[in-house]
Amino acid sequence: MTEHAATKGTCPFRGTRIGGAQGSEPQLDHWWPNRLKVELLNQDAPQSNPLGRDFDYAEAIESLDYEALKEDIRQFLHSSVDWWPSDYGHYGPQMNRMTWHSAGTYRIADGRGGSAEGMQRFAPINSWWDNGNTDKSRRLLLPIKLKYGSKVSWADLMMLAGTVALEDMGLPLQGFAFGREDAWEADRGTYWGPEGWDGKAPTEVPADPKLGHPGDMVHRGIRWEGDVKEDYYDLENPLAASHQSLIYVDPEGPNGNGDPMDAARDIRETFARMAMNDEETVALVAGGHAFGKSHGAVPADKIGGAPEIARMSEAGMGWSNPVGTGNAEYTMTNGIEGSWTPNPTRWDNDYLTNLFKFEWEQTKSPAGSLQWTPKDPDAPKTPDAHIEGKMNPLMMMTTDIAFKVDPEYRKVCEKFLADFDYFTEAFSKAWHKLIHRDLGPTSRWLGPDQGGKFIWQDPTPEVDHPLVDADQIARLKRDVLASGLSVRDLVGAAWASASTYRDSDKRGGANGARVQLAPQRGWAVNDPERLERVLGKLEELKSSFDGEGATKISMADLIVLGGCAAVEKAAADGGHEVEVPFVPGRTDATPEWTDEESFEWLRPVVDGFRNYVDEAPGYKVSPERLFLDRAALMKLTAPEWAVLTAGLRVLDQNWDGSDLGVFTERKGVLSNDFFAELVSPDLDWRPHDEAETRFDLVERKTGQTKWTATRCDLIFGSNTELRQIAEFYAGADGESRLIADFVKAWHKVMMLDRFDVKAERKAAVEFC
User: Looking at beta carbons, which pairs linking 358-367 to residues 24 or more positions away fall under 8 Å?
Assistant: First the structure.
């Protein structure tokens, strides 16, 4: 056979260059970069998890010898290995940094990031330059991980290592909770910012007075609007870090400008985005910088690539250093060299003492990075981390000097300087919050030493009364439906309560009934006037029922139960008898244990389920993309997303009562009318304007407008993957399938935050 010239002598795997930088041939995202990535709803496939579906991490933790694990970590902290020697003979500061940088990716806007799944092990986080050499920290911990195997996750071990390190160096702790289950694949969905991996904007920023000078914006990164010198200065939502590949901010000041006041503005914005106030921010930074050192012995251009582009011979680690031994006194991490205190492995107040006692001048590290040194030649010195007998000047970063020059931060520092015990407690509590913030409600927490209760945990009371039984549930359903509240009323209240849940940090959901508290009770998306009326009627029913005996029902349960009863009625009105599952046991939160400012971040920017779009936050993506993001945060599959939207449309759940997307003449009846009209070839979609935010669905034969719609409606008919689902449910046998699947998806949403009902919840979320 004659070989074709085009393939002669080439690799049979066309488009892949083994060992080269090209990688694989262009994929879908290359050819159609603006397509809706529905596959994001299919992440974390069970096939990727070698533990299998039946593995129970809670049982594994129960069998774990907690004290033995802590002792193994303590012994490791005081060791040193040749391939990566410990600074000062103590791995504590290095473990502390690894822990901090894993937890510190958390952002309150969408709950993503944080410690809960050990995502520092995967791209892109494992290869951010701000995470330089954290790969060495995890590799150092590997013998302990191998010893305990599946009894402790990487995510928990990474948090525990830094926490035990703090305790070993003298910090009293608030406790530690297990419960972080490992992810087994990289996160492909989180938006980390618009910059490229070189830290620059991918394209030229257009001239815009609102954005400031375009050249500055390209250098700074287009996640910022305004200028640090002006009143208008904001960070793109939902981002938290000040720049690509950073955990928080540039330690040399924004873009390395060396200006402490500019750095203070960045610090305040980024730490607030990570759920920390000014006192917590100072406590974390001042406390963290009591330990260890920064590494900048070698210029960055001599350092090898990050783990994701390192050579195979590097065995999964990156940032190879060819200078000297490549470690110890030759270590390069962020480019700044030196320690903040004379005793870098002991908990004390020397960081703040030295920061305020001495005047500091800008210098440069051996790597060429900006840093600060005391002007006073008699200032204390710090011992070299590796060379015995050598003493080095103290070091501060521009971000450290920021706490001295910013008036509000300075007040906090002075309070900590005057009361070391108060500072100790503040740092201990802030650390506890940092590493547990995305662990979710305490019903998910595991282990024997979980610590106290804090408002940021979104606590709810324990059940202190007998729960309703099947007969009482049936009676309450009848009472709710006879109360004068409509299907629209009851479904709306239940959805408003439960749909705040986001799986990223396990916040929100129906438990606690915070829909009846500020700020959620007043959110426009919840139609406050109607919600007020519904809650008032349900409170009357609750009062009447509770007065009859020991058995009681919470408002949280009654709100959900009312929605379940309404769904059953809506299906029955269309000729389909269904039973919607209901599992009691929710309790009602109180205003005293509800952080209004924190819960305001749960307010949806786009809730396509109720055709709500808030333009104010300035998200730079289309509504349907944020709708997809909302579905992903609720852990919905694509079919679940579709059936819930279709069902809520015909149940008349638009936030403002409009007819947008309500493709039915039978409002309040659960049907497949939405899909049937959406895929109808008899209707022509005509946009109202060039932006295509509103549409008329026009009958081709008559030219008459039959329906109006939004992008969040029509995406289920325009996206090729979602359209296949729509056509499936629009078929002759589609209505019964839709109703059955809507009931399952509805129950899943109502149960998303019920971590106290593991067996029932697991069974409920299986989607057919």
Answer: 358/394, 360/396, 360/401, 362/258, 365/296, 365/297, 365/335, 365/336, 365/337, 365/338, 366/296, 366/297, 366/298, 366/299, 366/337, 367/296, 367/297, 367/298, 367/299, 367/300, 367/332, 367/335, 367/336, 367/337
Whether the CB-CB separation of 137 and 81 falls below 8 Å is answered with no
- The size of the chain, in residues, is 768
Tell the burial category of 746 from Cβ atoms under 10 Å away from its Cβ (0-12, 13-18, 19+).
buried
Tokens of 262: 């500019």
In a domain, 744, yes or no: yes
Catalytic residues: 101
CB–CB of 643/747 below 8 Å?
Answer: no
pLDDT band at 344 (very low <50, low <70, confident <90, very high): very high
Torsion of CA 31, 34, 36, 41, to 10 degrees: 80
- From the number of C-beta atoms within 10 Å of its C-beta (0-12, 13-18, 19+), residue 366 rates as middle
Q: Given 149, 178, 207, which residue is the final one in a domain?
A: 178
**pLDDT reading at 11 higher than 50:** no
Distance between CA atoms of 668 and 489, rounded to whole angstroms? 10
- Measured CA to CA in angstroms, residue 121 lies from 60, 254, 307, 423 at distances of 22, 27, 10, 32
Provide the domain limits for residue 494: 470-764
- Count of C-beta atoms within a 10 Å radius of residue 484: 9
Q: Whole-model pTM above 0.90?
A: yes
CATH code at position 119: 1.10.520.10
Asked if residue 589 belongs to a domain, the reply is yes
Closest CA to 110 of 544, 559, 527, 506: 506
Do β-strands 338-339 and 360-364 pair in parallel, antiparallel, or remain unpaired?
A: unpaired
Report the distance separating Cα 94 and Cα 100, nearest Å.
10
Q: Distance from CA of residue 380 to its chain's centroid?
A: 41
How confident is the model over 269-317, as pLDDT tens digits?
Answer: 999 999 999 999 999 999 999 999 999 999 999 999 999 999 999 999 9
Instruction: Tell me how crowded residue 533 is: count the other CB atoms within 10 A of its CB.
Output: 15
Q: Is residue 196 part of a domain?
A: no
Three-state DSSP at 554 gives: coil
Q: Which residues contact 204 (CB under 8 A, 6 or more apart)?
A: 214, 218
> Angle, to 10 degrees, between the axis of helix 350-357 and the axis of helix 407-418?
120
Nearest Cα to 397, choosing from 268, 281, 293, 252? 252
Of the residues 136, 160, 178, the one at which a domain ends: 178
Which pLDDT value is given to residue 768?
A: 31
Mean pLDDT (whole number) for 543-555: 94
Contact by Cβ (8 Å): 150, 58: no
Residue labelled with tokens 């002006």: 230
Tally the domains of the chain.
2
Contacts of 138 (CB under 8 A, 6+ apart): 98, 120, 121, 154, 158
Question: What is the Cα gyration radius of the chain?
Answer: 28
Structure tokens at 549: 């005996």
**Domain membership flag for residue 655:** yes
Q: Which residues contact 491 (CB under 8 A, 6 or more apart)?
A: 563, 566, 567, 570, 648, 651, 653
Instruction: Say if CB 199 and CB 243 are below 8 A apart.
Output: yes
Q: How confident is the model at residue 28 (pLDDT cuts 50, 70, 90)?
A: confident
User: The tokens of 75 are what?
Assistant: 């012994």
**How far, in Å, CA of 740 to CA of 744, rounded?**
7
